[in-house]
Amino acid sequence: MPADQHCFAPCPRGLEQVLTDELRALGAEAVAARPGGVAFRSSIEGVLRANLESRFASRILLRVVQKPYRTEHDIYKAARGIDWDAWFDVGQTIKVETNGIRAQVKSLDFVSLKVKDAVCDVFRDACGDRPSVNTQRPDQRIHVFLDEQEVTLYLDTSGEALFKRGYRRGAGEAPLRENLAAGILWLAGWTPDRPLFDPMCGSGTFLTEAAMMAMDRAPGLGREFAFERFTGLEGGLWQGLREAAIARVKPLPARLISGRDEDATVLEHARRHLAALGCAPQVDLQVGDALSAEAPEASGVMVMNPPYGERMGEAEALAAWYPRLGDWLKRRFAGWDAWILTGDMKGIRSIGLAPSRKIPLFNGAIECRLLRYEMVAGVRRRGG
User: Fold this and answer.
1) H or E stretch covering 321
2) What is the spatial distance between Cα 78 and Cα 82, in angstroms, rounded to a whole number?
3) How crowded is the C-beta side of 177, counted as CA atoms within 13 Å?
4) Bridge partners of 156?
């Protein structure tokens, strides 16, 4: 493997600068934010470390070729010139995905097919056999990106997306991906010396991400990665990084983090997720309506992700609910910083409070705002 790797780390839109700072702190070089992610250069050890330690990246993609193209055959030749058998074994399954911006091809799916053919042809020449395709749980993912002039091929070193930390089993998809939740905590300036409260915690995404931060637990400790199946990777390198991460994990202080939800079933999912991290007893979880909650401490940070009003009748209900939320915050949470992620730009205006910050973020394809309300004693300000 080359000593120096050119990489790209996609992330939720709006977290590019947060991820840039994190990758620099992890030792990456030539770090540059791009729309939807961050380009960087690193050693193979740095690639492994980024997979293990990054709280904000969605994947760590390793660039294997970048070339100009005019036709699909040029793309095939670019993929055909890579020694794929030096990266992984023919017995492993593959999946090829293609994305593009102003790509000069008729079909992205056809490009995926041509790259898959090229990979299989390389293995056929090398060993007389070809890898199988698995579109659901492949051993190795190959990402193709096209712009108007260049094709870039990446080998996915992560496998499953990095927001899949390994603790969420059988609970379904969360309404908020883990790396976005971690990014929101970072943008909110939350640190483990301040109480954290989520009054609508659901299955506990904010709570579990905060717990891992407070414990200094690497987010990748509970999962596997595609790079573990790479040919020629020095096993001791990965083992050493992982053992060092395990050694620095510390206990979670009791009652630092608390959550509430009116649905007891999803709250049980939160308890199981926290138990998988070994910190369930230290987190205070209560069943109940958000607006009946009292502040757990005199001051702290509140984070919440209320519904966005996308379902039938939900927008009208939220329009009536937001003024009650504003009254509740003013009455019971003086001294707190309240951060609300919302895609309901119209409904949130009725909260009756003026946000001191508005940060654009995307929750999947939904354009949102992360709003900060500094709850201080005094006359309630209207607007926002």
Assistant:
1) helix 314-332
2) 7
3) 21
4) 61
Please state, rounded to an integer, the average pLDDT across all residues of the chain: 94
Residue ranges with strand state E in the chain: 5-10, 29-34, 37-42, 61-68, 94-100, 140-146, 150-156, 196-198, 257-261, 284-287, 300-304, 336-342, 357-363, 366-374
Domain borders along the chain are 5-156, 178-218+250-374
- For residue 278, pLDDT beyond 70: yes
Q: Which CATH superfamily does the domain covering 178-218+250-374 fall into?
A: Vaccinia Virus protein VP39 (3.40.50.150)
CA distance 49 to 17: 19
> Contact 73/115 with Cβ under 8 angstroms?
no
Tokens at 367, concatenated: 């354009």
Cα–Cα distances in angstroms (integers) from residue 26 to residues 42, 48, 50, in the given order: 10, 11, 7
Q: Report the topology of domain 5-156.
A: VC0802-like (3.30.2130)
Residue indicated by tokens 């690639």? 47
pLDDT in tens, 217-270: 999 999 999 999 999 888 799 999 999 999 999 999 999 999 999 999 999 999
pTM above 0.85, yes or no: yes
Residue from 7, 81, 83, 92 nearest 44 by CA: 7
Residue 244 CA: distances (Å) to CA of 34, 226, 237, 240: 31, 20, 11, 6
How, if at all, do strands 94-100 and 29-34 pair?
unpaired
